[in-house]
Design goal:
By secondary structure, the chain is mainly beta.
Length: 125
Amino acid sequence: QLQASGGGLVQAGGSLRLSCAASGRTFSSYVMGWFRQAPGKEREFVARISWSRGSTNYADSVKGRFTISRDVAKNTLFLQMNSLKPEDTAVYYCAATPVRYVYGAYVDMREYDYWGQGTQVTVSS
């Protein structure tokens, strides 16, 4: 089970930190990621992290502004979002999947088996 939280309303240039509490299984052989979906648009990849190795991958649109991390002891995934822009407005979802390919990119939402409920992020101009 994945439970996302931390969304809210923030002005452009501001910051938010999203959390995703994971439970029900051991995630040591998992990849966990963040996706987002803006109104009228398809769900898109934001960032992902290998739970065991901590290796990360980011969408070009958020590189240098967002940081994905995890607290292994607390089974919690984070997304630190800085320098937020109005175009970052979306519902943000956390997701998890077992590692199937060691060198997989895991940027496609179809690769993920488990999803959280989403948290709304609204950035005002």
